[in-house]
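Q: Structure tokens for this one, please.
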Amino acid sequence: MMDAYETTDIEYEIAVDIIISHKVLFPSTDLAEKPQTKKGLYSFGKTLLIDLRRTEQEIFLDIHKNARYKINRAMKRDPLIYHELTTPTDQEIQQFVRFFNDFALNKGIPPAIIDRLKGLRDSNSLILSYVSNENGDTLCYHAYVKTKNSCALLHSASARFNNSELRNMIGRANRYLHWEDIKSFKRMGLDWFDFGGIFVEPLKDGERHINTFKMEFGGQIVDIDRRHYPNTILGKIIVFLFWLKHRNRPEFLRAKRLRQHQYALKS
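A: Here is the predicted structure, written as tokens:
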């Protein structure tokens, strides 16, 4: 599998089973690349962007006051340490994958793929960040895809504790981690912080909770053009099974309507 970011205009002869292209339609841009004739699976989702070209104060004031309180408390009162890995080693990637996959198993979501993360790292496109406590315990982790102008959240995971006090601190730690990431990416000179997608029409409480959490940070909602192109028989089988599972998701139905509209304009 190969990921292509910021474009859907890709070569199909690349020797991989599936090519997944991701193109965020940043503000003031159009869907310039119309659906291609090659058969693939199209989705048209949404994501939340933070404009990093503004001042740090403007960005912070755009965050909901309850989230600002939790970030301030995390910075001033909680024993939290921020870590950022811009060129993670194989061992550091493995540590992240173990942490995330334990979380994913508990949540019933797809696991992180270590080869995918190593490939992003090797192309200078992977950033890992995490927050630990004074005992060195990791509380939450983020993985980002870095492109020319933005960083997009790829994976996010939090530690699980039965202690309610620790659970509350982890909630603050996760908001603090996002805020520190935002500040770091702004210092790098990037234009956009991308939350990596929101649910177009949240169908479950967990999906609504994720949308609510991300929207606490303000920002603006834009579209994502995502396409899965199979290159081999195995790729076609995988994409077909993926379509069977997700074909009624709102982002796939939006893409179907968009393609029909565009083809109608051609006729």
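A few notes: The radius of gyration is 19 Å. DSSP finds eight helices and nine strands in the chain.
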